[in-house]
Amino acid sequence: xxxLYNALVYTLDSxxxxxxxxxxxxxxxxxxxxxxxxxxxxxxxEKQDMGGKIILPGLTDAHIHLxxxxxxxxxxxxxTDTLDECLRRVQERARTAKPGxxxxxxxWNQNNWFPSPTDRGVGGEGxxxxxxxxxxxxxxxxxxxxxxxxxxxxxxNSAALKMAGVTNDSPDPVNGQFQRDAHxxxxxxxxxxxxxxxxxxxxxxxxEDVSAxxxxxxxxxxxxGLTGVHxxxxxxxxxxxxxxxxQRKLKLRVTKSIPLDDLDHAVELGLxxxxxxxxxxxxxxxxxxxxxxxPRTAAMLQPYLNEPGNRGILNMDAEELFESGRRAxxxxxxxxxxxxxxxxxxxxxxxxxxxxxxxxxxxxxxxRHRIEHVQILHPDDISRLAELGVIxxxxxxxxxxxMNMADQYWGERATLSYAWRTQLQQGVRLALGxxxxxxxxxxxxxxxxxxxxxxxxxxxxxxxxxxxxxxSIQEAIEGYTxxxxxxxxLETSLGKLAPGYLxxxxxxxxxxxxxxxxxxxxxxxSATMIGGEWIWHS
Length: 538
Prior knowledge:
Helices cover about 30% and strands about 20% of the residues. By secondary structure, it is of the alpha/beta class. It folds into three domains: about 1-50 and about 490-538, Urease, subunit C, domain 1; about 65-200, Diaminopimelate Epimerase, Chain A, domain 1; about 280-470, TIM Barrel, CATH 3.20.20.140. The strands form four sheets. The protein has an eight-stranded parallel β-sheet. It is globular.
């Protein structure tokens, strides 16, 4: 038995929202209240004076690519203000790399380097992008493959293209594109499924490599205040997580999605959403409806501004998605569908409408289906997530990263982009996350974005970008606690600090409910507990 006292404990339990002490035995909270009351009942408990610090339930990132994030910590950080700085970092890595060794990086965003096409001064599709030639100059002896911040585009040099057998005559794959310049020459930019044509020749990390990377990433996440994640990577990640679990080294609560490509296998095995335990459990079947805003591949009902021929890439329509969803729900698997553009979201909602009718007609339980991102909706679709009982899995930090692009490419339509409050007012459950490594998994950066709609420098204005969509700090924290717990079916054991709930908590030096929002940018956990065990101390 353990009692933490002399703290300001925000329980997120409406029956007793703020207390000064919390008692726990083994993995679970046994009581919350005041020190004297708890000690009178548990007088022999181990007592720990928290020195007036703040305690919150552990936070959960409801959308992360855990393998990609863990491995990205070993890659070149390409999230730079200029093209030259990114190239400098590639050149620096090339100096120490063996000849022929792959150079990998992540995080570039061409929209930050070339705000307008004239900055590059090149005709054709590649006018507003970096090129293979740029990389050839700084890494002539190595294949280079750098994924964009969105993870929906990649930038390769000539050596990488040659190793993958991609030439000027290579046809574009379905739902993808090899970008070419005005002369029909490859630029080195790969969009959507075209990325796979190069990535498949890169040596795959072993399950042991992934396992080691995740183990090394765990303390980074604990320090950020994360005690759980919903992961959207693939088979190797699941195997690595199982390996860590078997070795008792998994110290994050993980809900693991199943790729749509593996639906047949999951159905044959009879896997169900929720199978597993509090540490590692099966989540939803993950499908991709469209691309992303950065490379302008998000599927839109109307064209991108100044690109009359571009409405993005739609991977499937509502009927196709429904067919997959029908097969999933028959065995008890919920769906989680990536949808960025308003057309993509519209098609997903049409499919979910059919899926709800199918569940009712077959007497099946209504599963907790999700839309991942919900970045922009048509006005006619605003109320449909609530009507269909669909969870909005959204990433607040995307709004502040993407706001300039949204204004540039969507114009007035951006009024209903990243519209968290609109969905909350409709009665939708929000499950908030980061989409790391697209963004930092630091939930306090997400909280800052959610309550301010501002970047760290205060831009674009004092009240934020489309300030009517801001959340209160209470609502935002619930989006990282109660929302993810509900989304994964653990709302009776996770997300709050109350008797019977798991003792997952973080300790803060400052009170996020009272501090200026700008202080959120610097907050981190000074101590993290999962299942009653202190696993992190600053």
